[in-house]
Amino acid sequence: MSAINRAIQVIGDADNVPDAIARHSLHELLIWLSLHNGQLTRIDTSSLSGKLRQLLSAAPGSPWPAQKVAQQLAMSEATLRRHLAAEGSSLSALLADVRMSLALALLQSTDKAIALIAAEVGYESASRFAIRFRQRFGFSPAQIRTQQR
């Protein structure tokens, strides 16, 4: 059984598993992640880009028109664009980054079909998703799966 499955099992059985064992299981999971260059990072919400990443991460597969995003952040579209430009970013770049980062994590940590992952991160077409994924990371989603087996 993999470390992640053990951790899930332990967390799900909190009534019968002592806290020390649960902590140990979670530490094992973190060690495996670090050995495979994985990292858990906290989103910095001190910048507008960070706040926007947090917002987009909550529903990466949703359409995120600028008007909806600006409304969620209590500002006008022009102000949103101006502040993001000042940070050297844009809504489309941040959305693409959030979606691709999640897609990579899902490909590495689940057995979900590539088409399902594509849909989950906001792509209607698995082939378009694969093209964007290759542009971003330099290899296809299928190569991630092949490498892990």
Secondary-structure blueprint:
Layout: H1 3-12, H2 19-35, H3 48-58, H4 66-72, H5 77-86, H6 91-109, H7 114-120, H8 126-137, H9 141-148
Helix pairs in contact: 1-2, 3-6, 7-8
Average predicted confidence as pLDDT = 84
What overall geometry do the principal axes of the alpha carbons give? globular
Largest sheet: none
Helix content: 55-70%
Q: What is the string of SSEs from the N terminus onward?
A: HHHHHHHHH
Stated plainly, the CATH topology of the largest domain is called: Arc Repressor Mutant, subunit A
Please state the structural category: mainly alpha
Give a structural overview:
By secondary structure, the protein is mainly alpha-helical. It has two domains: 3-35, no CATH class; 43-149, Homeodomain-like (Arc Repressor Mutant, subunit A, Orthogonal Bundle), CATH 1.10.10.60. Helix content is 68%, strand content 0%. The chain contains nine helices and no strands. The protein has helices spanning 3-12, 19-35, 48-58, 66-72, 77-86, 91-109, 114-120, 126-137, 141-148. Helix 3 (48-58) packs across helix 6 (91-109). It is globular. The protein starts with a helix and ends with a helix.
List keywords for this structure.
149 residues, Arc Repressor Mutant, subunit A, 2 domains, 9 helices, single chain, mainly alpha
